[in-house]
Amino acid sequence: MNAIQDCTVLSNGVNMPWLGLGVWKMKDDGETEAAVASALQAGYRAIDTAAVYGNEQGVGAAVNGSGIARDQIFITTKVWNADQGYDTSLRAFDESMKRLDMDYVDLLLIHWPVKGKYKETWRALEQIYRDGRARAIGVSNFHIHHLQDLMASSDLVPMVNQVEYHPLLTQEELMAFCATNKIQPTAWSPLMQGNLDVPLLAEIGAKHGKSAAQIVLRWDLQNGVVTIPKSTNPSRLKENSEVFDFQLSAEEMAQISALNRNQRFGADPDNFNF
Question: Model's pTM, two decimal places?
Answer without folding.
Answer: 0.97
